[in-house]
Sequence to fold (209 residues):
Amino acid sequence: MKFILGLKIGMSQIFDKEGRVIPVTLIEAGPCQVTQIKKGETDGYTAVQIGFKKIEKKKTTTPPPPSRRRRTPIKKTMKKKPFRYLRELRNAKDYKIGDEILASVFKEGDRVLISGISKGRGFAGVVKRWGFAGLPKTHGTKHGLRKGGAIGSSYPQRVVKGKKMAGRMGSARVTVKNLKVVKVDSENNLLAVRGAVPGRRGTLLEIRG
Fold:
């Protein structure tokens, strides 16, 4: 299985040989490095851990003023991971620690699955969140056009778990399947994928093929 991490750059469009417009999402894919191999004997499952976006400089902290200083000593330098992002791929084989994964692992025409965290929409009503039609727009409806309506029933005298209601929308893991790789730029570590992918600009994406 092919696997790489990337950052969403944004959407654009390109033209094919016949002059048709193709909407694409540009992704900065890799380079990634294999950081750990997990085995069933020691970890309970088999997986390959890869890192993305190497951290070159360690983060330093400024000690608080004496009045707010804690009793425990504060280290001036925080130990950080060598990579900003770490993800695992289950049941992967033929990888060794230190192997580098580049965008060239994919080819034009490949079908991929892309997972990421969707945009956060905040608190949303049922019309926006679930696509409810709302109450009738006539016959005296007042101040309730976007309400969800009744949620109760005669039995079991409670709100059933999983009822579609207003609440927090977005900021959830979303996977889009069967996306086509239109172009691969190995020199600049770029992938152009047809269609839209989850998240805003800069969202971490897991690309599997």
In short: The chain has two helices and twelve strands. Residues 34 and 50 are 4 Å apart (CA to CA). The mean pLDDT is 85. The two ends are 6 Å apart (CA to CA).
